[in-house]
Write a structure and sequence with these properties.
The chain is an alpha+beta fold and 282 residues long. The chain folds into two domains: 53-175, Heat Shock Protein 90 (2-Layer Sandwich), CATH 3.30.565; 178-277, Actin, Chain A, domain 4, CATH 3.90.640. It contains five helices and nine strands, in the order H-E-E-H-H-E-E-E-E-H-E-E-E-H. The protein has helices spanning 35-40, 81-84, 87-115, 183-205, 264-269; strands spanning 55-66, 69-80, 126-137, 141-151, 158-167, 172-174, 225-229, 238-243, 256-261. Strands 1-2-3-4-5-6 form a six-stranded mixed β-sheet. A three-stranded antiparallel β-sheet has the order 7-8-9, covered by helices on one side. The radius of gyration is 25 Å and the shape is flat.
C-alpha cells in the first residue's frame, strides 16, 4: 500500500486543510454611474454562505536566532469535521493536542538553553505534525486513523501511526484491536496473510534482491497499527495493517501498509459484541 491519508480503502496519506473560496457578486460602484443607470441597477444578490471547513486545524510556529542561524519550531494538529461533530472526541483530541504542544514547547526551551551558543542548528529545531482522518463511517462506528511525524534533533525525524474507533452506541473510543477476542486470535487470523504480503512488498521494493537476514523478521500483528475499514460502507469488510519505520524494516525502507479482506477466520476472531459490524470482504 502507498502511504496516504486513510479513507475507506484503509490507506493513510497526509492531506492539508481546504477552505472553499466564496464567490461574491461583482458590485459596481453606483456613485460612478449616471443617475438614470444607477436607478435601473438591480440590487446585488445576497452573498452565499461559506461552506463549513472540512477540518479543524491548529498550527503554531516559532523562530529564534541562535549562533548557528535561525532555529525553527513547528507544530500542527488536525482532525476532520466528523470528529468535530462528536464533543467527546473533540475534547479528547484537544487535550492530546495541548499536552503534546506543551511538551514540545518545554523541549524547545531546554534545547535553546543548551545549544543556543553552539553550532548545531539541528540540535535546536523541532517539528511535530499529527493528522486524523476518517477510515470508515458506519451507522454505529466511526473508524479513524492518524499519522504523525516528530523531529526532536538528530539526522532525521520519525513517523508513526494511531487508530481509534468511536462507538456511537456506547459513547466511547476504543482501540480497533479491542474489537477482537485476543491478540493471539487476531494473529492467527491475519498473521500468515500479512507476512506473505509483507515479503512480496519487500521483494518489489528491493527489485528482487531481498533476502531474509533475521534483523527485521515479520512483526506480529500486535506490533502494527490496525485499521478497520469498509468498501461497502455498510460493514467493516477490510483490515488495514501499517508498520511504521523500524517495525518491519530499516528507516530507509519507509512504511509498509497492507489491506486484507475480512475472511471467515477474521470473523471468528471478532468479539461477539462487535460481530454484527463485520462482514466478509473481497
Amino acid at each position: 500500500m502507498k502511504q496516504q491519508r486513510p479513507g475507506d480503502d484503509c490507506t493513510t496519506a497526509s492531506r492539508r486543510p481546504r477552505i472553499a473560496a466564496v464567490l461574491g457578486a461583482a458590485i459596481l460602484a453606483v456613485g460612478s454611474l449616471p443617475a438614470a443607470i444607477a436607478a435601473q441597477t438591480p440590487p446585488a444578490p445576497p452573498e452565499a454562505a461559506a461552506p463549513a471547513p472540512d477540518k479543524t486545524a491548529f498550527s503554531e510556529t516559532a523562530t529564534y536566532t541562535v549562533r548557528s542561524g535561525e532555529a525553527l519550531r513547528e507544530f500542527s494538529y488536525t482532525w476532520p469535521a466528523k470528529v468535530a461533530a462528536v464533543p467527546q472526541l473533540t475534547t479528547r483530541f484537544t487535550a492530546e493536542r495541548d499536552r503534546l504542544l506543551a511538551e514540545q514547547r518545554a523541549d524547545w526551551d531546554e534545547a535553546l538553553r543548551e545549544f543556543a551558543e553552539g553550532d548545531c542548528l539541528g540540535c535546536v529545531n523541532r517539528s511535530f505534525e499529527k493528522s486524523w482522518e476518517v477510515v470508515a463511517d458506519l451507522q454505529r462506528f466511526l473508524s479513524l486513523s492518524a499519522s504523525f511525524y516528530a523531529y526532536t534533533g538528530g539526522a532525521h525525524g520519525n513517523g508513526a501511526f494511531d487508530a481509534l474507533v468511536w462507538d456511537r452506541e456506547a459513547q466511547q473510543a476504543i482501540d480497533p484491536k479491542v474489537m477482537f477476542r485476543s491478540p493471539e486470535a487476531l494473529e492467527a487470523a491475519l498473521g500468515p496473510a500479512w507476512c506473505k504480503a509483507l515479503k512480496a512488498e519487500k521483494i518489489k521494493r528491493f527489485e528482487g534482491a531481498y533476502s531474509e537476514d533475521g534483523i527485521f523478521p515479520c512483526p506480529a500483528i500486535a506490533d502494527l497499527t490496525v485499521l478497520v475499514g469498509s468498501a461497502s460502507r455498510r460493514s467493516f469488510d477490510r483490515i488495514g495493517l501499517i508498520a511504521a519505520p523500524y517495525v518491519a524494516g530499516a528507516y530507509a525502507e519507509g512504511v509498509y501498509e497492507v489491506t486484507l479482506p475480512v475472511t471467515p477466520a477474521v470473523l471468528a476472531a471478532v468479539r461477539p459484541e462487535y460481530a454484527a459490524a463485520f462482514a466478509p470482504g473481497k
